[in-house]
Amino acid sequence: MKKSMQIGGAFVGMVVGAGFASGQEILQFFTSFGLKGFIGAIIATIAFALLGMTLAQLGSDLQTTSHKDVMYYIGGRYIGFVLDLLITFILFGVAVVMFAGAGSTFQQMFGMDPRIGSVIMVIATIFTLFLNVKNIINVIALLTPYLMVIIFVILIYSLFTMDLSISQANELAQIQSSAASNWIVSALLYVSYNIATGAAMLIVLGGTVKKRKVAGIGGIFGGVMLGILIILINLTIFVKLDVVAEVDMPTLELANNIHPVVGVLMAFALLGMMYNTAVGMFFAFTVRFVSPESKKFKPTVIFVGLLGFFASLVGFTTLVGKVYSTMGYLGFALIITIIIAWIRQPKRLA
Q: What is the pTM of this model?
């Protein structure tokens, strides 16, 4: 059970990035559909649990330690190549969203030009890849439970101070920008792009255990935890839509309303998670083309960092709505391929 919980916890850590914790993703993919968004959140919970189980069990069956090998195994020579490119695109896209998110956080919390915040995050990410800072990244990963405590406090505060009726909140929700035209499609897109982002790593995590049952339980546990977090954040934003409807970082705005100190704590938690995610995605994207031991590595990191910065100027809210939904549609192909591979893979009894 301990190993299953570790796999589940790692699954949650991969998905809970800055966009998730800030509430902007939840607002566009769930809250914007009003009460139907809660049904969508339940559907997403079930999908996360089933796909989490599938990915972890596939990893246990294959006993693999390579992301790239997994893609070529489940897709073959040609489809595997396409999946490899898909994941590479997603890695860059997520890193860009983190850069933009840093800009929005600095602007909303400290009144700074968002480009300055983005530059700070890009520079921090580039210098991190020049150094051996794995221990720093591991420490920052511990921010997830700390962040969840803050979100729970914000939820309690929101429920006790809500000024909207359920019908008013429902009406206000449906005039917000949505990531898709349909609430069911939106929920599935949310699952799809998150799975596409973390699929390879979750398969490798499953490969750390020999018993597929243990791996499968870990995937289910992680999926259910993600679903609970989606529902909680969705409820928090829904009851306070009159306060957060026009802001980039809904949960940050609510934290600041409780007390400026809570807002600052939330801001640092978000920045820490953005940094953590940006470093991981940025590194994985860069090493897809250049080895860390190569003399070309550092110049490539700087070049890609500059590309990421200019791409981030589009804006955090726009990127969440456009980039993530696009990644979601592309991710459907990956999910279908993974499910087929799981069905065809000979199952061990252990």
A: 0.79
